[in-house]
Prior knowledge:
- The protein has 223 residues and is of the alpha/beta class.
- It folds into two domains: 5-17 and 90-219, HAD superfamily/HAD-like (Rossmann fold, 3-Layer(aba) Sandwich); 19-83, DNA polymerase, domain 1 (Orthogonal Bundle), CATH 1.10.150.
- The chain is built from nine helices and six strands.
- Strands 3-2-1-4-5-6 form a six-stranded parallel β-sheet, with helices on both faces.
- The longest helix has 20 residues, at 64-83.
- Bound molecules: magnesium ion.
- Magnesium ion binds next to loops.
Amino acid sequence: MSDLRLVIFDVDGTLIDSQAEIVAAMTLAFAGEGIAMPDRNAVLSIVGLSLDESFMRLCPDTDAAGRGRLVAGYKDAFAELRTQDKELGPLFPGARAALEVLQAQDHTLLAVATGKSRRGLDKVLERHGLTGVFHSEQVSDHHPSKPNPSMILTALNETGVSPQAAVMLGDTTFDMDMGRAAGVRTIGVSWGYHPADDLRPDILIHDFQALPDAVDQLTGSSS
Ligand SMILES: [Mg+2]
């Protein structure tokens, strides 16, 4: 077991370019509550947090009941968008190839740590043919929001991998802070929803082709 290593992926902004559907669902949720929509950059800055935490940051003056309605409105809007036959949320370029390279390595396990719900993650994985690719899937339903390390600690526990042999890959400061809090190394991606300069990861990558080498560097094992 000690030879195993674990690569933990964030989803939105890292694997999947979901900004179109997130902004569309947010627009519907705010319209339903009659609150002015924050600007697009503000909305994208919270992607990855739990929904309740997201609305706490986006509209701090809204009370818990209003936030509850916003969360429900967002979920409904998202589900509605999913029933429409649109090509929303593509994989980022090179994502599938990088997953295949890592998946083919006997000593590398893959995991997901996402602010998405179980239902939301299942749909995304199904849509992209990624069901069963990840050995451990941590979702927002049963964990405190990032950057609490709960999701990573559970993924390490489920796979039996030590923190020294694990890396967290993500596009936001929430992912990097979560990784550091869990004692794992971090890889930041420059194509997501937070400015790359804010991430301060162990390694910053600019395309998925660079991922396998970055994982090798940080875990000290070769592919
Ligand atoms: Mg993200």
